[in-house]
Amino acid sequence: MDATDLATSDGSPVGVVPPRLVTTAGAADLLRRLSGNHGELMMHQSGGCCDGSAPMCYPAGEFIVGDRDVLLGVIDLRLGVGDIPVDLPTGIDSVRVWISGSQFEAWKHTQLVLDVVPGRGGGFSLEAPEGYRFLSRARAFTPEENASLNLSTILVGADWEAGVRPNPPTVPQVVAEAVDACPVPGAVGRA
């Protein structure tokens, strides 16, 4: 699920599984502010309808996660840019990010980069009155990353309900800006 060293049956390394989700420092800051106002949070990558394909933020438990929804990752609000946790976050430090199983099939070859931009959020998403909105950006995985991901398992809503949890990530999952994780139209990359 998160970056984990894999090995074949003979013990030789296969590669590192990249995280399916990274977040910008700005998105993490907004989530910290929202969790201070609303308590524990969760997010769901919307599949359309009223709010397009926007990532939607809810108080934990306010959105019913389906048995086949896929956990993209757990945002650790204790972390800053470049930090790696020693354990999984809990309580208001933990924001689980889900996507429907069918939509995951379309997105599984990309790393979702959770960003925040000025504007009005979706009508049902907690950031709506804040003057900002969450935005999903994506970076296509390399062939090597896809090969590692194909050897890993995904965690779905039914697994979560049964008490299965992902391992803590072994690579940083907070970037300073979206351009640090993926190409952003009109943005200049860092040197």
SSE topology:
Layout: E1 5-7, E2 13-16, E3 21-24, H1 25-38, E4 41-45, E5 55-59, E6 70-76, E7 94-99, H2 101-107, E8 110-118, E9 132-140, H3 143-151, H4 157-161, E10 174-175
Parallel strand pairs: 3-8, 3-10, 4-7
Antiparallel strand pairs: 1-2, 4-5, 6-7, 8-9
Word description of this protein:
A hairpin with a 5-residue loop joins β1 (5-7) and β2. This protein is 18% helix and 28% strand. A 4-stranded mixed beta sheet has the order 9-8-3-10. Strands 5-4-7-6 form a 4-stranded mixed beta sheet. Strands 1-2 form a two-stranded antiparallel sheet. The protein is α/β, with parallel strands linked by helices and 191 residues long. It has helices at residues 25-38, 101-107, 143-151, 157-161; strands at 5-7, 13-16, 21-24, 41-45, 55-59, 70-76, 94-99, 110-118, 132-140, 174-175.
